Structure prediction request, 212 residues.
Amino acid sequence: MVLGCASSEPQKPPISQAVEPVFPPPSNSLGSLWDEHNGRAFMFEDRRASRVGDIVIVRIVEQHKGSKSAQTQADRKSTYQNEVGGTFFGLNNFISAIVDGVKVDTSAENKFKGEGKTSREDTLTGTIAAQVTEVLPNGDLRIRGRREVTVNSERQTMTISGIVRRIDLDTQNTVVSTAIADAKIEYTGLGVVDDVQRPGWLVRIFDWISPL
Prediction:
């Protein structure tokens, strides 16, 4: 009985782990005052991110709003009337006289009406630093970033990944999240507040088996 009433700790959502970028091995540049593999050695170089390991600042501005409604209505009505008289299916006049004047009336009517509506609105804003993990053949940059903040045992984790065009970077190496292709943004929290927001296991069982 004790084991049956014991509650198990709810499963926590997995947190994506950042993948460290692989830096290309530098090669020595003999006879030159500048190392071409050091992006900060050029005096007139474009300071925007272009190599693996460079830092990109992402301004997350996500606003999603959607609504959908549907309405269906169907009516169907049928009526059948028949009066038997004269010769009844080819029988003699005696049988037809018995059933003469018999009426058969039938009717059927079906009605269906359905209506549904749903709406949702999400907003997420913030700033996170990401690192270039790969330079694609066309020059686009694959980035990935992770930021974790813990305050009073409340851990907030934000991760982002995607592909950025260098042309979308400003002079401060900043890009908005709406310009990131194949973007994946996660914002999760673990702690007391997250536990309180989740209903208990018994309530979830009742919600699962309830037909209402």
Q: What stands out?
A: The chain has a mean pLDDT of 74. Strands lie at 55-84, 102-135, 141-151, 154-164, 174-176, 181-190.
